[in-house]
Each structure stands twice: as structure tokens, then as C-alpha cells.
Design goal:
Blueprint: H1 31-36, H2 39-50, E1 62-67, E2 72-73, E3 79-81, H3 91-104, E4 108-113, H4 119-122, H5 131-147, E5 152-159, H6 164-173, E6 181-184, H7 203-208, H8 214-223, H9 237-247, H10 263-282, H11 292-305, H12 311-321, H13 329-338, H14 355-360, H15 363-373, H16 389-397, H17 400-413, H18 424-429, E7 436-437, E8 447-451, E9 465-475, H19 478-485, E10 498-501, H20 506-509, H21 515-523, E11 531-534, E12 546-551, E13 568-574, E14 579-585, H22 595-601, H23 616-627, H24 639-655
Parallel strand pairs: 1-4, 1-5, 5-6, 9-10, 10-11, 11-12
Antiparallel strand pairs: 2-3, 7-8, 8-12, 9-13, 13-14
Helix pairs in contact: 3-10, 5-6, 6-12, 9-11, 11-13, 11-15, 15-16, 19-21
Domain Dihydroxy-acid/6-phosphogluconate dehydratase N-terminal: 85-391
Domain Dihydroxy-acid/6-phosphogluconate dehydratase C-terminal: 438-583
Protein name: YjhG/YagF family D-xylonate dehydratase
Length: 656
């Protein structure tokens, strides 16, 4: 293989140009502009026409279209360079549609991009150590980009997936004095024949355990994404974030979960650009929308749909960015006690419909209507449309759009929309329970989280309580745990075990997402008989008896650090009262008199340590978010607390 000739003759023999004519025409300046505008504003006009913009239009209102676009596509949609995930692959089409709408109204569109990683692509890899920290980094960069366009009237934020979308919401909330609107990037379609994008992430575990062939794994791994763009087909973190964005009032109505690449999807971008302009004309901003009532509605709709536990990190972070009170575990518990889940969407059952069916069944407006009927929705909250939820719901119920979408679901898939968004009374009659429970106990004195609605019904007792008692299998790395689940190490994980995965919280590795473990347990034949407790977090598509966010985390002195193989763990989760516990218990006749004595006699697990490959910038994120309230505070940067802590630390060190 020959090396490139860096200094060979140029292919183009014509001379290299050293000057050019420049744009024709003239800027529409005035005496007032020249006397009072900053040099930066004036030079901005020069650069705009330098990029080819019509000089007669440069004084129009400026709007920033900020997106998470990734990859590069040919005009026909084929790849020139791949993105990290389907969720940002087609987002450029939304940018184009929004920009065209801005131009239609004589505005000046700007576009900037802050691409995002893929939690699916980084499962089980070192890339997961950057996943949650990325959210804060991206939000800061996005806010800097917003501030760096000084004359912007509003921001149209376009994002789709697990961390880019929460980051975008944080960025828009942090600049809420502007006419900001969010455009969810939609969802990919399931394959006509094949597994969904959640189940297909378990082909390695199922093949290793002999539960599928190499041919089956190869086939399913190829065909899971039915279309090239959009977030996943399940109500994981990406799709739940889209639902929460709409519940907050940050989007135009019926925006979340639209099928990527289709006309009903691109229309959302045009409508959103127009909504931002209308906000400017009304003298409104996102600050009018993001209120305590909006945060409450987001938690309420999150509970009703059975959303991802990752939103327990993101909703408080959005509230903090907006300058609102951050909801805590008690607030989420109270909301979940008010309303049972009444949406049947993957990864939850009983059927598990893909997200596009939730959209066609009516999406967020339909869910909001049911919640209003229950007297729970704070329906006077305003949205970016300038209308309240009361007004939008009244319009939605009588709209052609609602009827057309619901009819299409029946026609295309033969599914009754009321089997996807089930009337709440019927959902309760069928035994559907609330979404999130917060167990405590001697292994998690500060609390923990379980998506109680997604535990396999066959292991739930008749009184709707999940009870588990089994020996601990302790792991300090996800790599070791998944190897035992695959049967690649001895002893292999077996039915009845309680996996205890420690040192995977913020201080240990950046609080990785452990979906390759939880998904394997869901789809392996014996997996429902295994429980997992960890100080890590879970993917939104995780199901089963998986308890995460254990606090304090092991490396912060949590008692979970002292568990050893063979210890007996007892778990109880009441899916009705939303109470639960996770305890180390003593065998009958054990020599110790108390669990506390056992803990006192032990140090941390000998293998417990900060992840050797943890990046320095993730360590910095972990330290900063710990000061700001840690996991239960949304993993945010509380600047006042950080500054106070640094000042106290400096004084203490000087005193030494």
C-alpha cells in the first residue's frame, strides 16, 4: 500500500485565487444602527451576507435552530459518514423545515449543532462512563451557543435521545427569557418482522446461554431498526424525555413520538418555528411556561405512561436550570401514589406496544385529557402555544388530527387506540400499577428506585407485592457481572440469586447505565427469578426486579459496599402502596445478634475501587454534582454550593 503524495502536483492546474469580488448590494444600515449598534452586531451582518444571505433581509428577526444532528447524509438519505445513533441521523431535515419557516416570515435563521452519544452503542463499554456527565457538558455548550448569538429572539431546540434531549431542555430552561420551543426528534419504526431495538440488545447474552443460534442472532441484529431515523421504539429514556418535554409545555401539541422522516414529523418543525415567532409577537418567553405546575404535570404524565427512571435525574435538572424547586424522591412518590400507569407501551406490558402506536393513539394530549378527567392535571398551566392545557385538550378532543391518527392505528395495525392509552378505570381493573417505587432499608438508607410497574407479573404475589429472598452475588464491575450472567465464569448466575453491583455510581465510574445486565435478565428464561441491586442507574427500557440509585453509593460509604457473596438479601416491593425495602438479613441461628454488628465488623469489599479507566473530566463531574445534591438532586451543578465549598476548602487548607 503506497503512502499518499502530500506534495504532488495539484489536480486543478488553474491558479489558486487570492481575492474575490465579494457580495453585491449593500447593507440596509441607518444612522441609528451605525451610532448605537455594537461592532459585533455590525460585523455579524457582514458575515451573514458573506455566507450568501440576501443583504436586503439581514435585519430580520434572528432565530437560532440548535440541534443534536449527527452524521452526514447524501441528498437521498444514504450515509456519507454515520452518526452515533438513528436519533440524530435525520434531525437535519427538521432543521431545514424550521429554517424554511423562519425565512417564510422574513426572519433570519441560524443553525448550530451539538451532537450526542448513544447509550445503546456504549452499553458495557468505557463510553458509558461519559454518558451522564455528557448531559451537563452539552447543556453548558448549548447555553454558550445561545448567548453567543446576541440578537436572537428565540431558540428552536431539536433533539431526540437519552442525553442530548435532556441537555437541550436544560439549555432552553436556562435561557428562558427567550421565545424558546423544543422539537422532539421522533421515533424509529419497528421492523415488520423482527425484534425491537430493546430486545435485540440481548443477542449476546441469549446466544451465550444457548437460547438462540448464531443465525438467529445475526438476522435479528440486522433488522431491528425499521427506519433510519428517530429514537427507539420503546418508552425508554429518549422517548420518555420527548413525552416529558411536551408535558412541560415546551413543545407544540402532539409532538412527542412522531415517526421520524414522515410529513407529520417535519410539520412539527415548521409549526414550532411559527410558535416561537408567535411567542415573540405576544411578548411571551419560556419563563411563562416553565413553572412549578409544569414540573408537576411532567411528573404526573411520566407516572401515567410508565416512563424511564432516568427522568428522576433529568426533571430535577430541568427545574434547577429554570430556577425552580427541584422535586425530590418524596415528590415523585406522592405523584406516583396519585395515578396508576394506564399506558401500555414497551418496555411495559401487558402487550407492550411500540412508541409510534402511543403517538397514533393520541400521545401526550390524550394522556393529559384522562388526567384532567381524574382531576389531577394542573390544566391552567400555559404552554408555548400561548394556550393552557385546558384549551388545548378541548381543541384536541374535537380535532381532525385526533380522529385521523386513531383511525390510522386501527387501519394499519388493527389496534384499538384505547388498548394503548387505556381509560384509567379500566387500567386499574386490569391490575396496572403505578410506575416508580422508592424502597429503603439497611442497604439503602438514603433510598433507591425501582420501576415497579415492569416487574414480571408471574413473580408478583396475589397481594401485588414482590418478595425476594436470596444469596448475594457481589460484583464490582459490570464486565464481571455480565460474564457471570452469560455463564462465562463460575459460578454462573442462576435463578434465585441477588446480583449486587457496587462502585458504579457517580463517584465510581460516572454512574453508568447497566442495560446489558437488565435486558439479559428480562430475556433469559430464568432471568425473572434473579434480582439486581446497584448504585448504578438503568436504561429506560429496563424491566424486572432491578433496584438502582442505591444511596449512599458504595464509594460514598454506603452499607452496600460491605455486602459479601452469600449474604442473604431480602427485597419487598409493594406495587400498590409504593413502599419497599432492601435489607441484609441474618439466617436463623446466626452467631451475630444484629445486622449492624455485621456491618461494623467489616470494611468495604476488598475489590471496591474507583474505575481505573474513569476519565479525569468524569471525576470532576462526579465531584461537582456531589456538592450540588448528587443523584437525588438531579446530578446538577449548584454553583452557589460549589463556590461555598471551594471557599471553605481553601480556607481550611490555608489554616493547615
Amino acid at each position: 500500500m503506497s503512502e499518499p503524495d502530500y506534495f504532488g502536483a495539484l489536480e486543478n492546474v488553474s491558479p489558486v485565487q487570492t481575492k474575490a469580488t465579494g457580495p453585491t448590494g449593500k447593507l440596509p444600515l441607518s444612522d441609528e444602527i451605525l451610532r448605537n449598534w455594537s461592532s459585533g452586531d455590525l460585523f455579524g451582518l457582514t458575515q451573514s451576507v458573506g455566507m450568501g444571505f440576501d443583504p436586503r433581509r439581514v435585519l430580520g428577526d434572528q432565530y437560532l435552530i440548535l440541534s443534536t444532528q449527527g452524521g452526514m447524509r447524501n441528498p437521498d438519505g444514504t450515509p456519507i459518514a454515520l452518526g452515533y445513533h438513528t436519533g440524530h441521523w435525520e434531525v437535519g431535515l427538521l432543521v431545514q423545515a424550521a429554517a424554511e419557516q423562519v425565512c417564510k416570515n422574513d426572519g433570519v435563521p441560524f443553525a448550530a449543532f451539538v451532537s450526542d452519544p448513544c447509550d445503546g452503542r456504549t452499553q458495557g463499554t468505557q463510553g458509558m462512563f461519559d454518558s451522564l456527565p455528557y448531559r451537563n457538558d452539552a447543556a453548558m455548550v448549548m447555553r454558550r451557543l445561545i448567548r453567543s448569538l446576541p440578537q436572537r429572539k428565540g431558540v428552536i431546540g431539536i433533539a431526540t435521545c437519552d442525553k442530548g434531549l435532556p441537555a437541550m431542555m436544560m439549555a432552553l430552561a436556562g435561557s428562558s427569557n427567550l421565545a424558546n420551543v423544543l422539537v422532539p426528534g421522533g421515533v424509529t419504526l419497528p421492523p415488520t418482522v423482527g425484534e425491537d431495538a430493546g430486545k435485540v440488545q440481548t443477542i449476546g447474552a441469549r446466544y451465550s446461554r444457548g437460547e438462540m443460534s448464531l443465525e438467529e442472532a445475526s438476522l435479528e441484529g440486522c433488522r431491528a431498526c425499521g427506519t433510519p431515523g428517530g429514537g427507539c421504539q420503546f418508552l425508554g429514556t429518549a422517548a420518555t424525555s420527548q413525552v416529558v418535554a411536551e408535558a412541560l409545555g415546551m413543545t407544540v401539541p402532539h409532538a412527542a413520538l412522531a415517526p421520524s422522516g414522515q410529513p407529520i414529523w417535519t410539520k412539527l418543525a415548521r409549526d414550532s418555528a411559527e410558535a416561537s415567532r408567535q411567542m415573540v409577537l405576544r411578548g411571551q418567553s419560556l419563563r411563562d411556561v416553565l413553572t412549578d405546575d409544569a414540573i408537576f404535570n411532567a411528573m404526573l404524565i411520566h407516572a401515567a405512561v410508565g416512563g424511564s427512571t432516568n427522568l428522576l435525574l433529568h426533571i430535577p435538572a430541568i427545574a434547577a436550570a429554570a430556577g425552580l424547586k427541584r422535586p425530590d424522591a418524596a415528590a415523585f412518590r406522592k405523584v406516583n401514589q396519585m395515578v396508576p400507569r394506564f399506558v401500555d407501551c414497551l418496555p411495559n406490558g401487558p402487550v407492550g406496544h411500540p412508541t409510534v402506536r402511543l403517538f397514533l393513539a393520541g400521545g401526550v394530549p390524550e394522556v393529559a385529557w384522562h388526567l384532567r378527567e381524574l382531576g389531577l392535571l394542573r390544566a391552567d398551566a400555559i404552554t408555548i402555544t400561548g394556550k393552557t392545557w385546558n384549551e388545548l385538550i378541548d381543541q384536541w378532543r374535537a380535532s381532525d388530527r385526533r380522529q385521523v391518527c386513531r383511525d390510522r392505528l386501527v387501519e394499519a395495525d388493527g389496534v384499538d387506540p384505547d388498548e394503548v392509552i387505556i381509560p384509567p378505570a379500566e387500567a386499574t381493573r386490569r391490575g396496572m400499577t403505578s410506575t416508580v417505587c422508592f424502597p429503603s432499608g439497611n442497604l439503602c438508607p438514603e433510598g433507591s428506585v425501582i420501576k415497579a410497574t415492569s416487574i414480571d407479573p408471574s413473580v408478583i404475589d396475589e397481594d401485588n407485592v414482590y418478595r425476594k429472598r436470596g444469596p448475594a452475588r457481589v460484583f464490582t464491575t459490570e464486565r464481571a457481572a455480565i460474564a457471570a450472567i452469560k455463564g462465562q465464569t463460575e459460578p454462573a448466575i442462576k435463578a434465585g440469586d441477588v446480583i449486587v453491583l457496587i462502585g458504579r455510581g457517580p463517584l465510581g465510574c460516572g454512574m453508568e447505565e447497566t442495560y446489558q445486565i437488565t435486558s439479559a435478565l428480562k430475556y433469559l428464561s430464568f432471568g425473572k427469578e434473579v434480582a439486581l441491586i446497584t448504585d448504578a442507574r438503568f436504561s429506560g427500557v429496563s424491566t424486572g426486579a432491578c433496584i438502582g440509585h442505591i444511596g449512599p453509593e458504595a464509594l460514598a460509604g454506603g452499607p452496600i459496599a460491605k455486602v459479601r457473596d452469600g449474604d442473604i438479601i431480602e427485597i419487598e416491593v409493594d406495587r400498590v402502596s409504593l413502599t419497599g425495602r432492601v435489607d441484609l438479613v441474618l439466617e436463623p441461628g446466626a452467631a451475630e445478634t444484629t445486622v449492624q454488628q455485621r456491618f461494623a465488623a467489616r470494611g468495604p469489599h476488598p475489590d471496591l475501587a474507583v474505575e481505573a479507566e474513569m476519565p479525569a473530566d468524569t471525576r470532576l463531574w462526579a465531584a461537582l454534582q456531589q456538592v450540588g445534591g448528587g443523584t437525588w438532586g438531579g446530578c446538577v451543578y449548584d454553583v452557589d454550593e460549589i463556590v461555598a465549598t471551594l471557599e471553605a476548602g481553601l480556607k481550611a487548607r490555608q489554616g493547615q
